[in-house]
Amino acid sequence: MSGRRSRRALWGLAALAAFCLQAAPATAASWFEQNFWLSGPRYSGRLPACDSSLALAEIQSRFASKERMFWNSSLQLVAFDRIRETANRPWASDTIPRRFCSGRVQVSDGVWRPVHYFIGEDLAEIGLSWGVEWCVVGLDRNWANSPVCRMAQP
User: Fold this and answer.
1) Is the pTM of this model over 0.70?
2) pLDDT band per the 50, 70, 90 thresholds, residue 22
3) β-sheet with 98-107: strand ranges across
4) Which of 15, 105, 122, 142 could form a disulfide with 127 if both were Cys (CB 3.0 to 4.6 A apart)?
5) Contact 104, 113 (CB under 8 A)
6) H helix or E strand, kind and range, residue 20
């Protein structure tokens, strides 16, 4: 009997909490919040070039790590070629600055494949620096950028 009572009490508390949360009126941000706390990001727009050795090394490292950890594969990126910028900040000025790049990459299996990637401001771990997101056509095994790496392009 005590189990039934405790369940009823729990349901009653949940219903009371839901009613109280629903009854509280929503208010707009105050003048103080609008002017000091909701100022928004201040992007510099300074990003490495598409052929930056740091960006390409980050892609190589993370690709090898992903292949090893998730796909039990020893594939690695050996060489980059025909790297070019396809777009720089293609969207509204207050969005995260991104530089979109494309080229081709030689994989350790000897095959040259298209690669698409973007370098974005504040996309590194905890937003401390720029970060890179990439997709190698034919090796997007989890379809994160499907179809055919389209989501890694502008």
Assistant:
1) yes
2) low
3) 77-88, 98-107, 112-120, 131-136
4) 122
5) yes
6) helix 2-23
